[in-house]
Amino acid sequence: MAHHTLTLNWGPDGFRPDRAVLPIETGDTISFKLGIAPPGSTFLISMNAQCFSPAEAKGSDTTVTVVKADSTTYFCHLFDEFGNPLSSEDQAGAGTRPGGPKGA
User: How many domains does the chain fold into?
Assistant: First the structure.
């Protein structure tokens, strides 16, 4: 089991993690941290509840556990210091797929 930390960045292509597709195994853990973003920003990551627990990460202190390694897409939402959305509601963030290499 590996732990993966993904850095989330706001740029010309929207709000995305530093890896487009993350190889995962059941039992791995994932956390997210804010990289390049406007001051005072917060984020919300929405994931497939059948594959990840919890299915939402509302900050860097949330660790998500892979309960079923699968190919799936998750969504990254960025909010300004007042809670207003900066990223589009339907913007896909990135994805996961079963398999190695482990660690990130």
Answer: 1
